[in-house]
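Researcher: I'm preparing a figure for a lab meeting and need a structural model of a single chain. I don't have an experimental structure, so a prediction will have to do for now. The sequence is pasted below. Please return the structure as C-alpha cells so I can convert it later.
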Amino acid sequence: MIPVARVPEPPDFNARVRRPGQEWLLRNTHTERPRDLWSPFRARLMEGFKNRCGYTAMWDLNGTVDHFRSIKRDRSLAYEWSNYRYASQWLNSSKRAGEVLDPHEVGEGWFEILLPSLQLVMTSKVPLEARPLAEATLRALPIVHDERILRQRRAWYAEYQAGRLSLEGLRVMAPLIAAAVEKQTPTASHTS
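Model: Understood. Here is the structure written out cell by cell.
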C-alpha cells in the first residue's frame, strides 16, 4: 500500500448517485445488495488512484469500485463518494469484513517490497498507533505473499529486469517494486 490522495467528488455524483441511491435504500430496506449506481464513476475513481489498486499499489485497468466500509456493515454508505476506493476486482472480492487500513490514510514508506522474494512487509515508519491496524490489514488482505499478487509483482519486476520497462515506468506501474529496486541499487534512480 502507498499513500493515495482523496479523489474529489464529481460534480454530478450527488444528482446521479447519492440522491437516487438514498431513495432506493428507503424503498428497499430488505434487499441485501443495493442497486449499482456507482459503476459509471469507476473511471473517475480509477483516474484518481492513478490507475492503481489502492491495496496492491499496482496498475490495474480492470479494477472495481470498492466500498471501503462494506455495504453489509453500513448500508448508509453505499452511495457515498467518500466511501469508495479503487481496487483490483479479485482483491475486492476476497476482502474480509475486518478492519483494514484506508489507502487514503497510509503514510509514505509504511510498506515495502523485499527483493528477491517480492513479499510485502510493514516498515518501522508506521506510527505506533497505526501498527495494530497495519498488521491486521496484512492478515486480512491477500497482499503479502498470495500467489496471485506475487505473480503480478514477478511480471512487473521481470519487465524491468529485461529492460522493457524503465525504472520510471516501474514507478508508475508498481511503485513499491521500483522503491525496492532503488533501495537495492541506490544508483538505479540516477540511471533511468
